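thread: overnight batch results

M.L. [08:02]
morning all. the overnight job finished for the chain we discussed friday. pasting input first so we're all looking at the same thing
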Amino acid sequence: MQNFRNHSDVELHWEHHVNVITGPNGAGKTNLIDAIHYLCMTRSFVSGSDQYVVAGGEKYFMVEGSFEGRIRSEFDIRCNYSRGEGKKIFVNESPLDRLSDLIGMVPVVVLSPEDKILTSGGPAERRSFIDGFISQISPAYMRDLMKYNRVKKQRNKLLQEFGGAESMLIALLEPWNRQLVETGSAVVARRTEVLENFRTYLAEQFCSFSGLDLTPDLEYQTFCTPSIHEDEIRTVYENELEQNQKKEIDREQTLIGPHRDEIVFFLEDMELRNYGSQGQHRLFSVALKLAQLFYYSNELDDLPIMLLDDVFGNLDQKKTEILLQTLNRHEGQTFITSASETPFKYLDWSDNHGNGWFAIDDQQIQKIK
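M.L. [08:03]
and the structure it wrote out:
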């Protein structure tokens, strides 16, 4: 890393299993794993803008990592960002034409205290979660989603700016409608398939982690009965657009499509968002990310990376032990940041177990075990 937040020039060699990073608040623990996230997802999971990642007074940052898996051979990823020129991604020194081509090359799952918004926030948060989830395992889904969003944007622009006769507007909307239906139906079908499979993983991880005698579930709500069959979705989609044509023209926006989907979480028959306690929200959000981790592990050829940022402060001792045992059983690489050293003293730190403990203070990073 160079000029990455508070790290001016750092090179680290991680262990292949569990990597623990401890140190005082503000020392730069989160920045270390955020750099890994950049190399997996082209962006920060902390900041919404690349310009705020550049160290103060500098003009650029650079992050580079070497990756190797059970199936994939070793390769290097580098992310360069400079003020005025933007961001570029290189794989084995070759520039990617599109940043999105990186997504899914090294799947990653992030667990942080901010995840509570997945269960307590609005539908947009849950759509973002499932879109990021599926995009890492399906390049086709990401292409369909990106095209759908472009079509929707252009269609909205036409609805908002056209000043002619309504009959002419309807004619101009027709080609946009066809593209909207085609891409939107593909998005709904893939969301339906993944969410149906994901329910099993969610139930298993929630029951294992929470210890509560409550069954979790989810419901996918869209403009039609959820289906994996695109033809069925297209038929309903076309009818819905026709029936809501007048309303969309009046409101000057696209009202029908997967951009308005909702995913509702339940504990038994209780809708979590409206009736869940703070503790239940916390347990459910952890289970969501563990379910994502094991979904990727079972469905993909190679294992994902797991990043946990300061999550143990909100967990009691028993839940902390369960989470660490789960991560220790998982064969993939994990990175954990924590201000407290207490939870990790009982991990296996023998040389052959592949775990590493790193301490950071005053921008100095030292491997202590």
